[in-house]
């Protein structure tokens, strides 16, 4: 029943069939999207009417391709911006947290650590509404007392950034902690014996050691932000991110342009994910 | 290194972490709890009230949706386990090392692409003018398109699809460390396949199973896209109630109460899972 033991023919064929069906199930939606992104038809369905790139490049009058759709392009750009900012912020704070929890001793470390990993088991919708509530309350209070309306406390680009950061930082924290735990402290001690101060040690020894984990978690943090829907839904203002824009359009009915966007997303995210895998292999 | 210097560094590291956890996690959740116990009185002022919770318990739609969501979340977790366990076993114990590595890499792809895109793919596959109906009609198996989309079947399918990765990864890492010779020894001593699975493989993988189940349950419970886009009008998922209160009815206090109930349900189940499997939260979520 395992590879070192003899297996009956029926067992082997049955199992192979199951695995093939599983991967068919896994890739069916992605394959269908990709194929129909190139179908020369107004409808997102079979039959196949021939190959076209219209859904990417057409510029009117009957067909507007993805690269001439200002709404989609704008939301794509917003998502990239959000992703980069969230990933940077999460990387900085998550790494600081990792150092704190691995290398320092202080009071209330255990409950604080528990709090830091809690966002992983809080549903994204809840994070969204609770941050929306607090931001609105604080925003109202500030407006009432000072007359200043702070935009980042209203559903907006920056509130989305804060909401996504609140749980993506946890992810970075965990990745960096697991790498930091493998760190050999005698290296640091040796450097200090040789006269390096703490900052030099961090810059020249600890950070280079952590580099694969840092780059890897930056990529993953970006992807998590880029694809986030549940938390973003409640915090988004007029700057719709790509998933929000796609969701609105999908609800209104599908067009082949949506397939074109999805196809590009499939290509883009899988190459980023591949990069991440290559990096973690090296580690 | 002077101790004053050290304290300064410590504070520089501690401050952003504290800010993050206090302003984005602790205070918002306290706020959520407070808001759920408030309602507008006759003058339109917010006062302490149990009304939001009373609504939940007296209006059967809310109740029904809550129980239904919990039930389906458990069902999806079980189905996901039943599908991914044989796969994890194949990848770790049957396939060659190279094939196993390749197969587990392929598993990640739909996850990175994102839930929304996969769901869109399923919509194209399942709807009446969709690809599956087209093929089935083309080969003559059916004459009228089957109603595959916008029902509980398509909703569960979408939820299982998006959950599989979160179940299979902990299963793979649990099974990877299972020593093959244990299985060989049991087999040499005459144990049947069934006995080997129930007495050796499953108990050994139990921590991985709990980890996967906890994460999947929580994600499914809090999911919005699959019920909304694949489940159709009658999907009745609890997150949709929260969304309706916040975005459509603009009754945030009612929405806060629903949110808190969802959080409570998710926390209780996660806690139970951890207690039953004697695990710590950080180990279970993959730290």
CATH topology of the largest domain in chain B: MetI-like fold
Name of the level-1 CATH class of the domain at 69-252 in chain A: Mainly Alpha
CATH fold field value of the domain at 69-252 in chain A:
MetI-like fold
The helix content of chain A is over 70%
Tell me, briefly, the overall form of chain A: globular
**SSE string of chain A, helices as H and strands as E:** HHHHHHHHHHH
Give the termini separation of chain A: 33 Å
Which structural class is indicated by helix and strand composition of chain B? Answer: mainly alpha
By CATH, the superfamily of the domain at 69-252 in chain A comes out as: MetI-like
Strand order of the largest sheet of chain B: 1-2
- In quaternary terms, these chains amount to heterodimer
The major β-sheet of chain A equals: none
> Total strand count of chain B, please?
2
CATH architecture level-2 label of the domain at 69-252 in chain A: Orthogonal Bundle
Q: Which two chains touch over the largest interface? A: A-B, 90 and 93 residues
Short synopsis of the structure:
The complex is a heterodimer of chains A (283) and B (287). Chain A has 283 residues and is mostly helical.
Describe this structure as you would to a colleague.
- The complex is a heterodimer of chains A (283) and B (287).
- In chain A, 72% of the residues lie in helices and 0% in strands.
- In chain A, helix 1 packs across helix 11 (256-282), helix 3 (70-103) packs antiparallel against helix 8 and helix 5 (124-146) crosses helix 6 (157-180).
- The longest helix of chain A is centred in the first third of the chain and has 34 residues, at 70-103.
- With 283 residues, chain A is mostly helical.
- The model of chain A has no long low-confidence stretch (mean pLDDT 86).
- Chain B has a two-stranded antiparallel ribbon.
- Chain B is 78% helix and 2% strand.
- Chain B has 13 helices and two strands; from the N terminus they run H-E-E-H-H-H-H-H-H-H-H-H-H-H-H.
- The interface between A and B is large, with 90 and 93 residues.
